[in-house]
Every structure is written in C-alpha cells, then in structure tokens.
Design a protein that fits this description.
The complex is a heterodimer. Chain A contains no helices and eleven strands. In chain A, strands 2, 4, 5, 6, 9, 10 and 11 form a seven-stranded mixed beta sheet that branches. Chain B is built from no helices and eleven strands. In chain B, a hairpin with a 6-residue loop joins strand 9 and strand 10.
Chain lengths: 114, 112
C-alpha cells in the first residue's frame, strides 16, 4: 500500500527559482492538503482541495499555487522561491469531503531556498 | 495563529512510565485528533475524539476531552522506547469545512 506519495524528498533552490512538489494518493480520497512545518510552529495549512476540481486557501497561501489535477494528484507550485519558504512540506489526504476525518500524510519534502 | 497548544513542549521519561501531554484550544470544535511524528517522517493518526465524547481508548492510549475547559489530554501508558516521537493535537473547528488546525507539538523522549 503506497498511501500518500510525495516527490521529491529533498530539494535545494536558489532564490527566484520555481518548482513543483508532486503528491499522489491511492486511497480514493476526496480531500487533499498541503501543509508546511517549521520549527516551533507546528503544521500550517497552505492550500487544500475538498474534492476534485476545487481548491481553497489555507492559513499561509501567499507565494504558492496548487493544482488538483485529478482525484489522485494534488501539486504545489512555488513560482519564485524565497528563503522564507525553506521548510518541510507535507501532503495529506482524507476520505471525508466536508468533515475532518483522519488525515494520511506523505513522508515530506525538505526544501531549502538559498 | 495556532489553535491548539500542547503542554509540555518536551517530556522525558523512562521506559515503563506513563506519559501525559495536554492540548488546549480556543474555539468550538467538531472533533480533536492526536497524531504522532517520528523524526524525519510524516504524521501518523492515533485517535479521534468527537465533541460529544469524553474519553476514548486505543491500546495503550487514552484520550480525554473537556469541552468546558477547551482541553484534551493524551495518556500513553507503560511507555516504550519506540514511543519516542513528537505528538500533535489537531482540531476540527466548527464552521471551517475540510480544515484541521495543528498545535506545536510535544516532544516525548523515552529512555531505557
């Protein structure tokens, strides 16, 4: 069982570069999420998608864009990376549509922006 | 801003002892969840307690919820070295569809 798969696991960018973080789930879940985790800050929601074809902003959406390509895949794009976006990024999914049942997390992407 | 705040921030105990960590939140919730994160890994769901429940058990885990005090506690009994991890509470706020808000976590160290 793959669950939630994120790629890449590690990435180093220079300020101003762009990149896309990929996420796919094989559990037929409706909802998908992107979180970032910074020391002492816990996890903060960047964007989420309650169902295929919909996306909504979370707590910290500035500097990011997302695409819910299909039910399986939810990508996060940094158009012009900044050092403040150095963080660990987690994708998650859940089966519920408007109720928050448990989340299944990927193993994370450690991103450094120099 | 963080909805859930865990206490303590760090906890060190010996194997076999019980570990208790607390979570406080600010507004009404539908449910509250606890997650574990091993170093360098993603979060793993442990237990979910709904707002109309007061206590739930899962193996060596016991979770309580006091909605009048807006607080929850996670008790791990007979701890093992493998329980060493960070533990996070997450709240499903009423009126916020599809979003969980995570606290800052408690770092648990279980020594032999």
């Amino acid at each position: 069982n793959a669950g939630v798969t994120q790629t890449p696991k590690f990435q180093v960018l220079k300020t101003g570069q762009s990149m896309t973080l990929q996420c796919a789930q094989d559990m037929n879940h409706n909802s998908m999420y992107w979180y970032r985790q910074d020391p002492g800050m816990g996890l903060r929601l960047i964007y989420y998608s309650a169902s295929e074809g919909t996306t909504d902003k979370g707590e910290v959406p500035n500097g990011y864009n997302v695409s819910r390509l299909n039910k399986r895949e939810f990508s996060l794009r940094l158009e012009s990376a900044a050092p403040s976006q150095t963080s660990v990024y987690f994708c998650a999914s859940s089966g519920g549509r408007a109720t928050n049942e448990k989340l299944f997390f990927g193993s994370g992407t450690q991103l450094s922006v120099l | 801003s963080q909805q859930g705040e865990e206490d303590p921030q760090a906890l060190s105990i010996q194997e076999g002892e019980n570990a208790t960590m607390n979570c406080s939140y600010k507004t009404s919730i539908n449910n509250l969840q606890w997650y574990r994160q091993n170093s360098g890994r993603g979060l793993v769901h442990l237990i979910l307690i709904r707002s109309n429940e007061r206590e739930k058990h899962s193996g060596r885990l016991r979770v309580t919820l006091d909605t009048s005090k807006k607080s929850s506690s996670l008790l791990i009994t007979a701890s093992r070295a493998a329980d060493t991890a960070s533990y996070f509470c997450a709240t499903d706020l009423t009126g916020t569809a599809s979003k969980l808000t995570f606290g800052t976590g408690t770092r648990l160290q279980v020594t032999l």
